[in-house]
Amino acid sequence: MELSIKWAGNPNITVAVKAFGLKATIQAVDLQVFLAPRITLKPLVPSFPCFAKIFVSLMDKPHVDFGLKLLGADVMSIPGLYRFVQDTIKNQVASMYLWPRTLEVVVMDAAKAMKKPVGILHVNVLRAQKLRKKDLMGKADPYVKLKLMDDSLPSKKTTVKKSNLNPEWNEEFKLVVTDPESQALVLDVYDWEQVGRHEKMGMNIIHLKDLIPDEPTLLTLELLKNLDRNDAQNDKLRGQLVTEVTYKPFKEDDFPEVSENSKEVEKAPEGTPSGGGLLVVTIHEAQDLEGKHHTNPYVRITFRGEEKKTKHIKKSRDPRWEEEFQFVCEEPPVSDKMHLEVRSRPPSIGIYSKENLGYVIISLSDVVTNKRINEKYHLIDSKNGRIQVELQWKPS
């Protein structure tokens, strides 16, 4: 977009000047600004608001006109001063934003916005065997954390098996895949501790590019200390983890094109549990948030025991996230509720802790019936805070 902007006004701008031991008060009057900016929205992405960055530059030197008054006198009447001040301002502004130099405003991470779900990874954590003893009593309380690399979502966890070095889990998980060529499944085995930090017993990874689509793969993984092949500690026996993984990519016909006037219901991608579906939650923005000591908001989403979080935005009462989260459901959540809590993260340096800026509990029966809801909700425990949330239900 190439625009023509003209603005004129009589602002009350007063500047105190001190030089060579002398003080003076100067007032700007009759300010006029004429600009010809070029505004570029790029790159285009499939997520709202459909562009990742805003670039602003000037097509020509801006025209700035104003007068200066000093103790009731017109400073600009001094010969040569008017042109000197005008040229100085034009050159300073032009040096910063005159094309091809641009002011870049980042709206969202373009790389993440372009990565849409392409499949679902089914993971069955079967068992571990011959785990290395961790405490003095020769016992361990193991559990497994699993997540995909390059995924900002929280890790999923198995249950804790008390006092067992050969635990059996047989627990299934589903993870949304965005890039099977680069992503890998990270599996960490921890020893649960009632007090203190949980101790890591070992880990390993599974590269998705090594999996054959739609074919279950049974793997017995040797637990390692880390992924450094040159680390001698990886030669120590730490036990094994047995898992079964299946990568099910979405098919082309899993993404039907629905016109604006079409009443066809968008279906969940193939691989979604039969009789269930995909619940898509988009956290758009919030308004009028206010913390007692700080306002660096983020949203925590809790649904069926699973927790997900948005990024936190520094010093904003009106944050915009535009982040999407997905929940794979075994059955329609007609009787379920989703808990959204807006919280504030304290500054890295300070004495204050996290603050609750308000919350809302959303009944999901309407979204199952209507397939899509996009509404603003007033936050409970907040004076004026509101949050805009979009929910979509895609049945299998």
List keywords for this structure.
single chain; 396 residues; mainly beta; Immunoglobulin-like; 3 domains; four-stranded antiparallel sheet; 3 helices; 24 strands; 47% strand; elongated
Helices and strands in order, then pairings?
Blueprint: E1 5-9, E2 13-19, E3 22-35, E4 37-44, E5 51-58, E6 63-70, E7 73-74, H1 81-97, E8 103-106, H2 110-114, E9 119-129, E10 142-148, E11 156-157, E12 168-177, E13 184-191, E14 199-207, E15 217-222, E16 240-249, E17 277-287, E18 297-303, E19 306-309, E20 320-329, E21 337-344, E22 355-363, H3 365-370, E23 372-378, E24 386-395
Task: Describe what is shown at a glance.
Belongs to the synaptotagmin family. Residues 99-221, 259-377 form the C2 domain. Helices cover 7% and strands 47% of the residues.
